[in-house]
Specification:
Layout lengths: L5 E8 L6 E10 L17 E2 L4 E5 L4 E5 L5 E6 L16 E2 L3 E7 L4 E7 L5 E6 L11 E4 L4 E7 L2 E5 L11
Antiparallel strand pairs: 1-2, 3-4, 4-5, 5-6, 7-8, 8-9, 9-10, 11-12, 12-13
């Protein structure tokens, strides 16, 4: 990993001309592991809804929420996942009815965490028994029966209830 601390930032750009409306420093932190040359330290993309913008910096283990005006709403520390082949992280946050969901699947642990989108309060976590890296993002699937959060990695696919984090089975 680099010896100097890295700085993660969030930029809000104008739809009209692409100019920077505001810029926020999310975190400045020493990287805890190297990454593959084909990756970057911020592969995850932000998610947004009417309440705010949510950005997960997987390599720093930081999940943050900002209002549309750039004001920090909340920030939470998460695990920093060691990934296979040294590729680095890549799972973006997903939004489901006032919840922010992050998938943290690495070589040492495999957990999904859910936070209230307004307060950042932890709501639930799901730990799958099979560890292993996954760069996929949680998928919020609204089907004819219910809403599910689908998380995949390795040879396993889990459908979770977005309210409780319990595995969804049957009807």
């Amino acid at each position: 990993p680099p010896k100097a601390p890295l700085t993660w930032k969030l930029f809000c750009l104008s739809e009209q001309d692409g100019g920077v409306l505001w810029e926020r420093e999310i975190v400045q932190k020493q990287a805890s592991y190297p990454i593959h040359p084909s990756n970057s330290w911020q592969t995850e993309t932000p998610a947004a809804d009417d309440a705010g913008v949510y950005v997960f910096c997987g390599a720093a283990g930081v999940l943050s929420a900002y209002g549309h005006d750039g004001a920090l709403m909340w920030q939470r520390q998460t695990e920093v996942c060691r990934t296979s082949n040294g590729f680095g992280t890549g799972s973006s946050p997903a939004l489901a009815d006032g919840r922010v969901i992050v998938q943290l699947y690495g070589e040492d642990s495999a957990v999904v965490r859910c936070f209230d989108s307004i307060t950042g309060k932890p709501l639930w976590s799901f730990e799958r028994p099979d560890k292993g890296t996954s760069w996929s993002s949680p998928l919020v699937w609204r089907n004819r029966l219910r809403t599910e959060v689908v998380c995949s990695g390795g040879d396993r696919l889990d459908a979770l209830d977005p309210v409780t984090g319990a595995i969804v089975t049957g009807k």
